[in-house]
Fold:
Amino acid sequence: MTEPLGAPTVVVDDLHIKYKTFTSGKKASQKRALLTRQRGIRVVHALKGVSFVAREGESIGVIGHNGSGKSTLMRAISGLIAPAQGQVFASSRPALLGVNAALIPTLSGEKNVILGGLALGLTPQEIQKKYPEIVDFADLDEFIDLPMKSYSSGMSSRLRFSIAVSRDHQILLVDEALAVGDKGFRQKSEARIRAMREQAGTVFLVSHSMKSILDTCNRVIWIDHGNLKMDGDPEEVVKAYQASK
Structure:
């Protein structure tokens, strides 16, 4: 018997994203575009009429080849990119966690935990209570007093993930954050995402690891050259995607 679907949390309706780049590949701002001959500008149609509805309790894998539009979709859902056409509706503010999420390199891991917690809307008292769990989850007990610039990329990404999941989000967007760290950390991260899903949250996971997708998600969306190629059962979608390579 199929589990009843929860209430809609994200509605993506005929979403088109376009941006301008110079023929050199550099992104063009509107101001620079006006000062440059038009023949040096290329319009990239990153998403082409993507539509779907995400619901409470879903963990949705987003797969596709490099440059397919996966990260663009996450940034559009989070509100960081304005649609050229179509709309995105969300029942609450989506939280975007990417491997490039900014922490302050000159500050210690400890201070970044505090600032990150405040940015998430936690009170100082809540941060103090959650602090040991955040540090332990990131496996950084020995290094938490060192400046972030001394961390490896894996250590920084573990801390970012730990801070981001220290509070429950109704909508969490995870962009490649599970691609870092050892097997043990990936398993912890996947377990945390499943727990958030079970608490009636909605999680989007962008990953090139089909194992992480299959272990974590109960639905998969395949983006191909900006188009929604397939949307459905994880095993079916992943099988079709792998056969297309």
Remarks:
- DSSP finds eight helices and nine strands in the chain.
- Confidence is low (pLDDT under 50) at residues 31-37.
